[in-house]
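Q: Got a minute? One more chain.
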Amino acid sequence: MRLLGTISADRPLLVVAVREEAAHLGDRLPVLLTGIGKVNAAAALATVLAGGRHPSEVVNLGTAGALRPGWEGTHTVTQVIQHDLDTPTLYALTGRTYGAPLVVGKGGDGPVLATGDLFVSDPAARDRLAQHADLVDMEGYAVAAVAHRAGLPVRLVKHVSDEAGDGAARAWRESVDDCARHLADWLHAQGW
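A: Always. Here it is, folded:
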């Protein structure tokens, strides 16, 4: 975890997993580098917010795998799910829902993001996830859950880096810098 810059109530906090994804964001806004995965993302954001200063909103920028053919570009997610939590079984055991889908941003029509601690690079896993979501990442749900619990607005903005199938790891490595440029372009288009 590494916080670059200072959090203030009049501007957003950018939350990014790794420095490669933040390479072109500049230093106008604070950036929290969380590390990869749900635990790292949740722990980093919760730790920073527990420090007392809260941003105007939390914006999670990062790469995502496409779960369907033809998905490319930058997307603002409207709903996020956890794909590696067995919510139905936990409900059957406890009578309580854990890991329910979260609406993010302004909601409405838009892509569904599936978050889990598995880097999806298997076509069978991709096809299974495609029944419920459009994109897959490893931090979005955790960031959204922490922001919701802190009462902060949250946006998840993802740029497609790969097709979450054979060769996904190589494709991510080859495309991450280009993805980082697109994410920086999205940020600048917001006027930040």
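A: The CA atoms of residues 80 and 113 lie 5 Å apart.
Q: Perfect, thanks.
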